[in-house]
Amino acid sequence: MTPAIRSRVQIFELEPLSNTDIKVAIQGVLEDRERGFDFDVQLDDDALDFIATATNGDLRSAYNSLDLAVMSTQPSEGGERHVTLDTVENSLQRSYITMDKDGDGHYDVLSALQKSIRGSDVNASLHYAARLVEAGDLPSLARRLTVIAYEDIGLANPDAQVHTVTALEAAQKVGFPEARILIANVVIDLALSPKSNSAYVAMDAALADLRKSGNLPIPRHLRDGHYAGSKELGNAQDYKYPHAYPEKWVKQQYLPDKLRDVNYFQPNETGKYERALGANKERIDKLSK
Predict the structure, then answer these.
(1) Distances in whole angstroms, Cα of residue 195 to Cα of each of 168, 254, 268, 269, 279
(2) In terms of Cα–Cα distance, which of 165, 147, 159, 153 is closest to 197?
(3) What CATH architecture is 104-192?
(4) DSSP of 225-267, one letter per residue?
(5) pTM, full prediction
(6) 81-83 and 41-43 as β-strands: parallel, antiparallel, unpaired?
(7) Phi, psi at residue 42, to the nearest 5°?
(8) Domain ranges of the chain
(9) Per residue of the chain (289 residues), what is the pLDDT tens digit?
(10) CATH for the stretch 19-92
């Protein structure tokens, strides 16, 4: 919805009904011959519990599930239909879960999954991943877990990113139900890995400067010196080749003049690999002064 339209409407957020509310509504339909069924229906308690749980607070889905289960049940000699748990389970396309892939609930589950992994709660992470597994939504799982590996684990544990990408590629090849095994490994690995967002925070800071200052002039010694006339312009002159120096490093300016003193990357101390990067950065910063 565009901002112009949103400003002219009132938005209401509808929360899922509780299991108790669903049960009361279903029992009301079973007792009301005018609005419900015009014949006797006996619904077992465990079947009622199942409908209330499986439809995830959606009364319309609950009514549809009840109707399908009742109409799938053969009437007795007296005309009564006895709906059991088995009948209800067979009537629903997927046990205990409903997932609207284009609805808010779908994105709520993905959001809860990422926030649980970011917060290192492995049990909550597995719970929300299980919702997506049960819904058969492998593409959304693969995309979100890949993002999490780089956004929330980042440089604290780069091996987790390799494991994630490899496992998710395999999961998409084998498909469900076996893919759940690979998903479980990824979720646990990410949830219990050390966390760092320093890389993407550094990139966002660089982007913010770029959008503020525009494309500033690149120092002459860094420009391409291979095309005709480039040497005459002073391009690539006085460039120092780092590999020609003992420590594969030499002091020279790389950033545009206006940004020469910026410091985008601020390493975290959460992972061994990033600590090593931070130590190397500290060494280079001291040599650069």
Answers:
(1) 20, 30, 9, 10, 18
(2) 153
(3) Up-down Bundle (1.20)
(4) --STTTTTTTTTTT---GGGSTTS------S-GGGTT------
(5) 0.68
(6) parallel
(7) -110, 115
(8) 19-92, 104-192, 198-288
(9) 677 777 778 777 778 889 899 999 999 989 888 888 888 899 999 999 888 887 778 888 888 889 888 988 898 888 899 999 888 887 775 444 445 555 567 788 999 999 999 999 999 999 999 999 988 889 999 999 999 999 999 999 999 999 999 999 999 999 988 999 999 999 999 999 999 999 999 999 999 999 999 999 999 999 887 776 666 777 878 899 999 998 899 999 999 999 999 999 999 999 999 999 999 999 999 988 8
(10) 1.10.8.60
> Which amino acid does the sequence have at 262?
V
Tokens standing for 288? 């650069």
Q: Does domain 198-288 have CATH number 1.10.3710.10?
A: yes
